[in-house]
Amino acid sequence: FDFNDFLAQIAQIKKMGNLKDLVSMIPGVGKMVKDLDISNDAFKGIEAIIHSMTPEERAKPSILDGSRRKRIADGSGTSVAEVNRLIQQFDQVSKVMRKMQGGGLGRMQAKMQKKNKKRR
């Protein structure tokens, strides 16, 4: 999982329609979202940051040192703090993706089913 995959996920989310409408479909979240200003424009900064990376940086996020992050921030019209925030978010998504690929989601479901059986 790399920034190319992350960019592809963003593209798929954008194809699904308005982000606010999508989030409002999540049970229990709909009422909270009506007052929030959520739009697909939120992805523009993320896309600008990723597009400012070289192909090698997108494929190997581990090489993003301080000087590369500064260059990416300058190229994307954002700050180094925003680049760092995106990298942190990417790391979190990457961990979840690794767990899912490794069967972690299946194991989680099995554990939940076991707990539900014990409760009965």
Automatic annotation (TrEMBL):
Entry-linked InterPro entries: Signal_recog_part_SRP54_M_sf, Signal_recog_particle_SRP54_M, SRP54
Q: Name one GO molecular function term.
A: GTP binding
* One of the GO biological process terms: SRP-dependent cotranslational protein targeting to membrane
At the top level of its lineage, which domain of life is listed? Bacteria
Q: Where is this region: Disordered?
A: 57-76, 101-120
Signal peptide range: none
Enumerate the Pfam families for this protein: SRP_SPB (PF02978)
- Full protein name: Signal peptide binding domain protein
